[in-house]
What we know:
The structure is a homodimer of 356-residue chains. Chain A is built from 14 helices and 17 strands. By secondary structure, the first copy, chain A, is of the alpha/beta class. Chain A has two domains: 267 residues, Queuine tRNA-ribosyltransferase-like (TIM Barrel), CATH 3.20.20; 80 residues, no CATH class. Chain A has a five-stranded parallel β-sheet. In chain A, strands 1-2-3 form a three-stranded antiparallel β-sheet. In chain A, α7 packs parallel to α8, α8 runs parallel beside α9 and α11 packs antiparallel against α14. Chain A is globular, with a radius of gyration of 20 Å. At the A-B interface, α13 and α14 of A face α13 and α14 of B. Chains A, B: Its EC number is 2.4.2.29. Chains A, B: Pathway: tRNA modification; tRNA-queuosine biosynthesis. Chains A, B: One of its GO terms (biological process) is tRNA queuosine(34) biosynthetic process. Chains A, B: Belongs to the queuine tRNA-ribosyltransferase family.
Amino acid sequence: MFKFEIIKKSKRSKARVGKVYTNHGVIDTPMFMPVGTQATVKTMSPRNLNEIEAQIILGNTYHLYLRPGNQLIKNAGGLHKFMSWDKPILTDSGGFQVYSLAHKRKVLECGVEFSSHLDGTKHLFTPQKVVEIQQDFGSDIMMPLDECVAYPCDKKQVEESVNRTTCWAKESEQSIVNSAQNGALFGIVQGGCFQDLRKRSAEEIAALGFPGFGVGGLSVGEPQNQMFDMLDIVTDILPEDKPKHLMGVGFASDILGAIKRGADLFDCVIPTRLARHGSFLTLEGKTSIRQSRFEKDFSPIDPDCDCYTCKTFTKAYIRHLFWAREILAMQLLTIHNLRFFIRLMAKVRKEILDEN
Amino acid sequence: MFKFEIIKKSKRSKARVGKVYTNHGVIDTPMFMPVGTQATVKTMSPRNLNEIEAQIILGNTYHLYLRPGNQLIKNAGGLHKFMSWDKPILTDSGGFQVYSLAHKRKVLECGVEFSSHLDGTKHLFTPQKVVEIQQDFGSDIMMPLDECVAYPCDKKQVEESVNRTTCWAKESEQSIVNSAQNGALFGIVQGGCFQDLRKRSAEEIAALGFPGFGVGGLSVGEPQNQMFDMLDIVTDILPEDKPKHLMGVGFASDILGAIKRGADLFDCVIPTRLARHGSFLTLEGKTSIRQSRFEKDFSPIDPDCDCYTCKTFTKAYIRHLFWAREILAMQLLTIHNLRFFIRLMAKVRKEILDEN
């Protein structure tokens, strides 16, 4: 089961409020998805995620395929049951991780050959295999194998990646074993920072009739205005009535700008990674809790925040935990940073709904 | 406020069920106290501690004095408020940590001179200072500065440590600034593994009329039967109607044996440390979750355990988290291991209460 419903469109931009219906529940859009790379959102238990009102999390196909393996997850009853998370899960295609993590990556016509970053063993991802892996996971939203290129990148190379991504998207679609429990397979648009290639990729992928779309290859080093330009081109072409996931983006300002350009779903490691390194997020940006000015600061990180961390602890205490290298420190800031992003999405939805 | 009430004495041993009343609530004894060295029980939030039904935690005076400092904790409103834990706290004397952690330790008549293990700075702990620090913390149970010796140890040295410990105990008692909010200062018995010195120390400390007692210098390498013998001597001498804390002990079998010898309170880093290293506790002892036999084990650690970990996750999943070096793994095993000890204490209390 998969359905997208637009509740309200903004008159001021391409922003919209919607609902995605899946086998594991409903997602309000725009929505931020915490990243749970290895079948856990780092430092967070499922109940912590429920408490911050996460509605969907993201898992990484590349990581989970290598460890603990899709067969083990299938035997456990799927990824939801394995990690004890009963709300929706989106899994990525592994394309970006192969591109950024794997050793000795080699792109072939039929897929990508790579060596595991864990133990050097050789593996082959084909479009069919990547779909099969995600069906073993029981993901609510699956992504097809795509080819992500670096920024900046030679136009010829980007063109090849667009061709390959379209070709693999077709093969992925044909690989789905249909059942009532099936998740939805999205199509991914690539095209680097070339307007004509973005346009072509969006047209080719739109033509394949996917129930939703990922916009890939952005937030890889290009300036924000270029990212926005590319996104604008893509959302003008993709069908308006389908949800769009701007993959791997980003900072709050990136996300707010992308919502205005029609993006609905977001994921990024920024809130969780910054938390583990001791930075908390507010509307003013990121701030390191380690600073000496917080030593005797007995106020919460954000007095207006409703998260457990802000309702319970002071900056002085959290700072102490970081300097003392206590693990709890990382969890407390992760709770706050993720809640910050999820509250931000709720605020944006409310603003659109309140528009006259 | 501090009161100890014996609810029932066992007819089969010196074991008893009791209640300790403090300004921050009641403690059922026998009770295990999770160790919160640096103003946090490692990986556990206060609500995690409440959930496993921890009734009292232990803080380390040495660590907290060095970082964040007793003055800062006092300014925060005390240790309870600083760490957001509203139930009782016992703080140790720092004696054992100075003995085991500090550099260039020098025992003087007036106290102990040492260099911080953090930055090498020089400090002096006197009996008075150690009481003042703990009054800054607002601890419910305070421990006086004592001298812990190694095992095995020359008798002359142990005798000196007994003399010093008694002398410092008197000075500690005189240093208390009395108020209604005051915690109770316990007396500490030393004496190594010498029967006559244990006897003498117990008599001298008992004579000072403390509202409760710590038994120190055990579980430092001596065989279990020696530890039990020493404890037996001490609990025969100390007033029966006062609570006794067997400091830093231990494994489940140590604790169960010690309860029969009249000990009421226990603390140890074993459950939390083992958890962070990937071992879980059951009545059979400790087991490493990393073992390959758990790879496809989709059952909980202990089907009879009521902790969040056992009610929610499988061994296969927790094993995966450890191999993937995920922080959540450490928290999940800590929850289980501490709950295991706390349930064990509840079971012992029930057995005594159910005796005919």
